[in-house]
């Protein structure tokens, strides 16, 4: 599960780094990938490999969240469970009848 999430997070960070030419981010993604792959060799000591991989997953998830445009304000807003008083209704339909003049 952690490796699947890591690949998603790495993809977000990697392609953002490619677009913005942040080569140090590319390097960190590759290094964290190699570290995680290397930790799987410690599989006989299951906890010794699992705990660091989950720590890397958590850190990469936070980094990918902020890279994708998330903010601390959005997290607090989500955790507060308050609904905004928004009476606007948005309708979207791909099939719309053209206006006749």
From TrEMBL:
Its membrane topology: Multi-pass membrane protein
Compartment list: Membrane
Spans traversing the lipid bilayer: 23-47, 53-72
Pfam families given in the database record: Aph-1
Keyword annotations: Membrane, Notch signaling pathway, Transmembrane, Transmembrane helix
Keyword hit for Disulfide bond: no
One cellular component (GO) term of this entry: gamma-secretase complex
UniProt xrefs under InterPro entries: Aph-1
GO biological process: Notch signaling pathway; protein processing
Subunit note: Component of the gamma-secretase complex.
Annotated function: Potential subunit of the gamma-secretase complex, an endoprotease complex that catalyzes the intramembrane cleavage of integral proteins such as Notch receptors.
Similarity remark: Belongs to the APH-1 family.
Protein's recorded name: Gamma-secretase subunit APH-1
Organism: Bambusicola thoracicus (Chinese bamboo-partridge)
Classification lineage: Eukaryota, Metazoa, Chordata, Craniata, Vertebrata
């Amino acid at each position: 599960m952690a490796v699947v999430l890591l690949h998603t997070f790495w993809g977000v960070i990697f392609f953002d780094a490619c677009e913005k030419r942040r080569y140090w981010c590319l390097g960190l993604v590759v290094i964290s990938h190699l570290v995680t792959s290397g930790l799987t060799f410690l599989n006989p000591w299951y906890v010794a490999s699992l705990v660091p991989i989950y720590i890397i997953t958590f850190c990469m998830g936070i980094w990918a969240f902020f890279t994708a445009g998330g903010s601390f304000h959005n997290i607090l807003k989500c955790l507060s469970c308050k609904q905004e008083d928004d009476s606007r209704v948005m309708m979207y339909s791909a099939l719309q009848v053209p206006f006749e003049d």
